[in-house]
């Protein structure tokens, strides 16, 4: 199912060919350092670098027999190198290679995720500025509250994605480490300089201490950051789905030429893409639980994490990458309906202005409790009788004792709700180019 949504670039990172290439990159880097330290003849290193290769099919064939993927890989590489293969994997244990290469894969994937997340935020910024003063009703508990602007809604999303970019940067830093420290991390068959120098060649830092593996809190942090990012995109998608409901119809997904919404009802324009986002966003959240359970392992290592990681890491990255692409396209091409937003403000016949009436009464000396009772009485009557709120207020002698007709009318103006929009936008965008 997931492969159906795989974007080629991210999917290719996690294919066996790239994974084994990363293993070979680690092995070659170690050989280079051993040569610098005088443990491998320079002529042998030259031949190793010229000849070293592998066959994914051959690795699969060997692994069926030996039941060990690294041994199968090394055997395939040895087939290509010949007698100099005795210098490959010298002093190493399997996870010197596997975990270091895994960090390279995650780093490559996270860098792509970061790039795509920045792109999403640039689209959000553009849309926030475009709809900065587009007034709509704000909703709490799904019920009309007070007017806001669509731009403010999007600015909130923009600020949220900015936090995710910071989290991605932190996760990148914490996963950009490797280990070339031997079977239980004590360098017994290795010069520590092999680790320092080979990892530098690979663009990684050495873990300050490790067992036979890098500790899995690093990997869990990565999955957490991706799950959190997907949860935000689910939130955006859910908002769009709510705004596309027939009764609301303030925002729609784009509906392309030739698209059909229902096999039975030709009139339907369903929010299928945002629904798909909400569905797929559940996968990273579920995978996070597995990543957390991978942290406690027996002693210096066991292998219980490995099989699960082969599923959750590629799938989480592939899903996140897909959701970023879809979310960006949807927001960049959605159909926003400002006129409908204005219409919906009036659905409650002025009730969204109740707080302004309440405050106006208190400013005239009425206690908050008494003012609240008066406004609520008229609000409930407007609800029940489907009457205009402003007309009820103007006809209520208890209200008109405190407020003139003009003062009541002023409470129903949208202009004051735009007064602080520039202030909000300055806080969000003022320090950005």
Question: Can you give a write-up of this model?
Answer:
By secondary structure, this protein is mainly alpha-helical. Among the domains are: 211 residues, Up-down Bundle (Fumarase C, Chain A, domain 2), CATH 1.20.200; 61 residues, Ribonucleotide Reductase Protein R1, domain 1, CATH 1.10.40.30. Helices cover 64% and strands 5% of the residues. The protein has 19 helices and six strands. The strands form three sheets. A two-stranded antiparallel ribbon has the order 1-2. A two-stranded parallel sheet has the order 3-4. Strands 5-6 form a two-stranded antiparallel ribbon. Helix 6 packs parallel to helix 12, helix 9 packs parallel to helix 12 and helix 11 packs antiparallel against helix 12. The protein is elongated, with a radius of gyration of 30 Å. It starts with 7 loop residues before the first helix and ends with a helix. The relative contact order is 0.11.
In short:
By secondary structure, the chain is mostly helical. The protein contains 19 helices and six strands. The chain has a two-stranded antiparallel ribbon. Strands 3-4 form a two-stranded parallel ribbon. It has a two-stranded antiparallel sheet with strand order 5-6.
């Amino acid at each position: 199912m997931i492969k159906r949504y795989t974007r080629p670039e991210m999917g290719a990172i996690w294919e066996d060919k790239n994974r084994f290439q990363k293993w070979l990159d680690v092995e070659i880097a170690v050989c280079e350092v051993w040569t610098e330290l005088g443990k491998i003849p320079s002529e042998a290193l030259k031949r190793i670098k010229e000849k070293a290769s592998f066959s994914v099919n051959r690795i699969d064939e060997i692994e069926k027999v030996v039941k060990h993927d690294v041994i199968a890989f090394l055997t395939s590489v040895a087939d290509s190198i010949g007698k100099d293969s005795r210098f490959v994997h010298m002093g190493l244990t399997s996870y010197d290679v596997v975990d270091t290469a895994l960090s390279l894969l995650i780093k490559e994937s996270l860098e792509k995720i970061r790039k795509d997340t920045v792109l999403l935020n640039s689209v959000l910024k553009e849309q926030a500025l475009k709809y900065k003063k587009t007034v709509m009703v704000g909703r709490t508990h799904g019920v009309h509250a007070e007017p806001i602007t669509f731009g403010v809604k999007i600015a909130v999303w923009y600020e949220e994605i900015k936090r995710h970019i910071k989290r991605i940067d932190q996760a990148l830093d914490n996963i950009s480490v490797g280990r070339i420290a031997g079977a239980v991390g004590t360098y017994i068959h290795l010069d520590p300089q092999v680790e320092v120098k080979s990892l530098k060649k690979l663009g990684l830092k050495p873990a300050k201490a490790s067992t036979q593996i890098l500790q899995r809190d690093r990997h869990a942090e990565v999955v957490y950051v991706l799950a959190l990012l997907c949860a935000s995109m689910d939130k955006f998608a859910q908002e769009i789905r709510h705004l596309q409901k027939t009764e609301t119809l303030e925002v729609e997904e784009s509906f392309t030429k030739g698209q059909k919404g229902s096999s039975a009802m030709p009139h339907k324009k369903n929010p299928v893409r945002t629904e798909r986002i909400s569905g797929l966003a559940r996968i990273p959240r579920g995978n996070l639980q597995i990543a957390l359970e991978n942290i406690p392992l027996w002693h210096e290592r066991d292998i219980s994490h490995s099989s699960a990681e082969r599923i959750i890491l590629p799938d989480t990255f592939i899903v996140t990458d897909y959701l970023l692409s879809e979310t960006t396209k949807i927001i960049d091409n959605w159909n926003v309906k400002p006129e409908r937003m204005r219409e919906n403000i009036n659905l409650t016949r002025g009730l969204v202005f109740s707080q302004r009436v309440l405050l106006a009464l208190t400013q005239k000396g009425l206690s908050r409790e008494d003012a609240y009772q008066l406004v609520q009485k008229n609000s409930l009557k407007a609800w029940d009788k489907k009457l205009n709120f402003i007309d009820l207020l103007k006809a209520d002698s208890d209200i008109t004792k405190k407020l003139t007709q003009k003062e009541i009318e002023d409470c129903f103006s949208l202009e004051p709700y735009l007064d602080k929009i520039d202030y909000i936008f300055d806080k969000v965008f003022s320090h950005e180019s």
